[in-house]
Amino acid sequence: MSSIGKQLKFLNKISLTTKPTQILINPDKYHGLKLTFQFQNHNGHMGARKFWREYLPTLKFYNPELNIDVVRIKNEDRNNVSVPCVMEITSKTGTPLATIDMRNKRDSEIVTEFLGKIQHTVIPEEDLIKV
Amino acid sequence: MLKANFLQVTRKNAFHVSRIIREEITGAEGPIAQVSKLSKDQLKKRELRRFTIRKREAKMPATSHPLYMQVPQALRFLRAAEVGQPLSQQTINLTTLVVSEKGSPNLAGDIAFVTPLKEVKIAIFTNDETQMKIAKEKFNCYVVGGSELISKIKNGEIEVDFDKAFATPDIVQELGSVARILGPRGVFPSIKKGTVSENVEDLIKGNLGSIPFRQLGNCISVAIGKCNFSDRQILENLISVRKAFKDSVSTQKTKKPSILGKTILSTTHGPGIVIDFS
After folding, report:
1. For B261, which of A11, A115, B9, B277 is 20 to 30 Å away at the CA?
2. Which of the following CATH numbers is that of domain B122-208: 3.40.50.790, 3.30.70.2120, 3.20.20.220, 2.60.40.1930?
3. Alpha helix segments (H runs only) across B60-165
């Protein structure tokens, strides 16, 4: 990243332009998220990776208390479909509150499903941080 | 199959032809040598002009930069950019641009971190049995040895992965054979740097828990923390880094001391954010 314009765009993508995950999550209720998927895209793991890359930075930015774990498993074999592609929402006590199957879904579909399963409040437009 | 082979062959040929044509056009063999068309006088002027620009930029306040941020907010952005990466890769680092006169010595020194990132690995070169014992038992140094250690480093049997090295005067002459291995990594013990002494104990005590830094090119870059450090820990480390940098500037042996310029906070995968360092 060299030009200042590009860097500002990158920073604003985290704090301003990624709309769906500009939410506040109650840190007393939720401990964090745990995502498990492949390094490779085959067998429908691409959506999970894109979800991590596109939406999780914003979620972390507005919820610094939330623990987000990403476990990526190496699997070069296309015929091996045993690698899970799931997201777990964990509570304070460590028990999973909800699981979302991310296989063969696009990143936007995963976001809508995620928002449906977690209690949240949307951050009003004037509270967003602009660089 | 045949078609693919044919395509491959033609592609290869095309590549060769284009290369030959290029060589003919430039009239040079191998990589094109870059020769400036400017005269010596003009080159000197250009260098001076660039130097004054860098000097002016270094003196400008950090708040005037479009990427300026307060440290806590910068850390929030950096942690967000680093989300989901393995912790070993989530290193926060600090880069400071240095504007120095031609010929002035590079900045170097030691930083005493409040919260260190890792244990400092110390190597001791000595043929003195008692000193060896002290280093091994009292301080649990990473590697301790005499002539045999030097020959092992020379043969590549021991990797040079330590951060600091000390020696006793009796072994200094033998160290010359590994100067080319230790020197570039900044771990060559020398009297001038004050890393050679009869009493190893004092040396280690004075340097325990501090990490060395040095200027490379026009900047100094050091790792100051991990993303899981708290804001307070990182700010404490930042203050100790600033103290070390300013000390190295004030002790620099030159008539015109170097100027510390723009300071950038960044992470392994994250963006660079300008902070106020002075």
Report:
1. A11
2. 3.40.50.790
3. 71-81, 129-133, 147-155
